[in-house]
Specification:
Layout lengths: L30 H13 L10 H8 L6 E7 L9 E9 L18 E10 L2 E2 L9 E4 L22 H10 L8 H11 L12 E6 L2 E6 L6 E6 L2 E4 L16 H5 L7
Antiparallel strand pairs: 1-2, 2-3, 3-4, 3-5, 6-7, 7-8, 8-9
Helix pairs in contact: 3-4
Length: 260
């Protein structure tokens, strides 16, 4: 694969091709240092889940320490090659003073350097862990952090695991009804804190085993009631993506082995 999905994953793995010198020689203005720091940042956030909306990527960057998001430019016609760009400001050490002014500050404040990043549906364009798709740009006068619009995608309830566990632990040993279980769990769920719609609760009954799932690739919650009791089902983030096992009760009942 040309890119690895990070988990919150992702991660989240850092080597900048062609930038081994870092912020040393050839980086008098700090541009290379800024791109290096941003590549590091992109790998430590959940900014590589599959999406056709660059605002989804932007939402993963808000509120994190490090580079600050100052620009969002969605593509007019999102495609496999580009869904838009995000612009970040990175604060780097000011170039050393080499003049003769004795009153000059020997330890100047950090200076802003701005970098534009292009994304496709799978994450940053180009090779993961490199500065492919990153372009140093002139910083605007206003460096205020911008907030992407709220997502309209359904989200798992903040208390989803507790609600599912409560209902599954109270089930009789047999005669479980999938629709009734889903209704009981849904009645216990709290609304998502960010105002997004509540994700559907999916239930599958297989003999005496019951699988439950809610949410999507980025916030999936899955539990299973089996012979050993009720347990949380852990699946790697990449296996929750479109085209893989996914976040559903069948995955909860029969989770895939970890990827190699």
């Amino acid at each position: 694969m040309r890119r690895v999905v990070a988990a919150m994953t992702s991660s989240l793995l850092l080597t900048l091709a062609g930038c081994a010198a870092g912020a040393g020689a050839g980086d008098a203005d700090g541009a290379v240092e800024a791109r290096t720091e941003l590549v590091d940042f992109l790998q430590k956030t959940a900014m590589s889940a599959h999406t056709t909306d660059v605002n989804d990527v932007a939402r993963a960057a808000v509120g994190l320490q490090g580079p600050r998001l100052i620009g969002i430019d969605p593509a007019e016609s999102p495609s496999d090659s580009s869904i838009g760009t995000l612009t970040f400001v990175v604060w780097v050490a000011a170039p050393p003073y080499t003049g003769t002014d004795l009153d000059a500050d020997p330890d100047p404040d950090p200076v802003p350097r701005c970098v534009e990043v292009e994304f496709d549906p799978w994450g940053k364009v180009g090779e993961f862990g490199t500065d492919d798709g990153l372009t140093s740009v002139e910083c605007p006068a206003d460096l205020t952090e911008v907030a992407p619009p709220p997502s309209g995608e359904p989200a798992a309830a903040p208390n989803a695991e507790e609600a599912i566990r409560q209902v599954l632990e109270a089930l009789p040993a047999d005669d479980a009804d999938a629709d009734a279980i889903a209704q009981q769990i849904t009645a216990l769920l709290e609304e998502p804190e960010d105002g997004r719609p509540l994700a559907e609760v999916q239930v599958e009954v297989d003999g005496t085993s019951v699988g439950v799932a809610t949410g999507g690739p980025d916030d999936c919650v899955m539990l299973v009631r089996g012979a050993a009791g009720v347990s949380y089902v852990h699946v790697s983030p990449v296996q929750l993506q479109p085209g893989e096992s996914g976040c559903n009760p069948w995955t909860a009942l029969d989770p895939p082995p970890p990827p190699h």
